[in-house]
Amino acid sequence: MVVLVKPPALDQISLVRSPETGGGGGPAFPGVPAVDFSGPGAALAVVDACERFGFFKVVNHGVPAGVADRLEAEAVAFFARPQAEKDASGPADPLGYGCKRIGRNGDMGWLEYLLLAVDQGSVASPVPSPSLRDAVNEYVGAVRGVAASVLEAVAEGLGVAPRDALSRMVAGAASDRVLRVNHYPPCPLLQRLLDSCAVTGFGEHTDPQLVSVLRSNGTAGLQLALRDGRWVPVPPDRDAFFVIVGDSLEVLTNGRLKSVRHRVVANSLKPRVSMIYFAGPAPAQRIAPLPELLGRGEQGLYRDFTWGDYKKAAYRSRLGDNRLDPFRI
Ligand SMILES: C=C1C[C@]23C[C@@]1(O)CC[C@H]2[C@@]12CC[C@H](O)[C@@](C)(C(=O)O1)[C@H]2[C@@H]3C(=O)O
Ligand SMILES: O=C(O)CCC(=O)C(=O)O
Ligand SMILES: [Fe+2]
């Protein structure tokens, strides 16, 4: 008999079978779709990837590599500071520095992070150092353009007019944008057991916003749930931005694009650093299917709500909950 005893530092963090194959197997995962934003055809490729996986990566996005590299270096320097100094920027509630605790309802992961509010072009939260603030500002200045291009491509690919019908929802002065910088330290305490168990870095969930734009260093750990429930690893790519369809975009498209469950498992040897820009709308924004996407006589699948309503409910939920279920008709 194998008895699993977790070291104290891990005793509130769950283990996952990784990757788990779900029941029955399914068609081979062809890999994460890469959409080239420098050429023609991006809009249709974006919609195809969002319909099939709720996930893709943007290549040739035009953001100079130095912008993300600089934020990554500043983040590494911040997370290397003494714990007491980092704690002075926390606890995250929901913004600020957080360690292991995710949200307010008991979720735990093997990570530390900074959650920062972003206004139209720069960070709106206090940032622990001027050099980190400059790097964050430079980064959000660039990544918000990627989020806008993605949402324009979605609108174009779905035949929604005007082209900025979605992107303008996350570009207004009152829009709710957040930048999250995650650091997953190596987790040597628990080496992979039986070759199939891993420590939860960030538990499985969907993102509540329209889209999330993620960039990570070269350390693996991100996993994606396919539509048939199988989990697949996402190979890291420092040069790309990964795009995650969120719950709000699912509703706006009446379920044609679906939000995707994803999670991160800790690496036993290398640190993972990721930065994720969550593009959310203004609290008063109605989140309802776009009329162009409802066929004649077709009903919306969700009851009427605003982003403010949804966010309030989200912050009362556990990470892994299906937050859209209570809003389905
Ligand atoms: C457990 C939670 C953390 C979270 C708020 C929530 O109550 C449920 C949604 C979580 C999530 C997931 C995506 C993003 O990382 C995040 C910032 C968000 O908008 O929703 C987190 C929230 C958080 O960490 O505060
Ligand atoms: O750190 C990552 O790679 C993903 C984290 C994530 O999904 C999130 O912060 O919502
Ligand atoms: Fe996420």
Automatic annotation (TrEMBL):
Name all Fe2OG dioxygenase domain ranges: 174-281
EC class of the enzyme, as a word: oxidoreductase
- Tell me if Ribonucleoprotein is a UniProt keyword of this record: no
The protein's required cofactors = L-ascorbate
Keywords, A to Z, come to: Dioxygenase, Iron, Metal-binding, Oxidoreductase
Read off the InterPro entries from this record: DIOX_N (IPR026992), IPNS-like_FE2OG_OXY (IPR044861), IPNS-like_sf (IPR027443), Iron_ascorbate_oxido_reductase (IPR050231), Oxoglu/Fe-dep_dioxygenase_dom (IPR005123)
Report which superkingdom the organism of origin falls in.
Eukaryota
Give GO MF terms, alphabetically.
gibberellin 2-beta-dioxygenase activity; metal ion binding
Give EC number(s), comma-separated: 1.14.11.13
Q: Which reaction does it catalyse?
A: gibberellin A1 + 2-oxoglutarate + O2 = gibberellin A8 + succinate + CO2
User: Into which family does the record put it?
Assistant: Belongs to the iron/ascorbate-dependent oxidoreductase family. GA2OX subfamily.
Q: What is this protein called?
A: gibberellin 2beta-dioxygenase
Q: What is the source species?
A: Panicum virgatum
The organism's lineage? Eukaryota, Viridiplantae, Streptophyta, Embryophyta, Tracheophyta
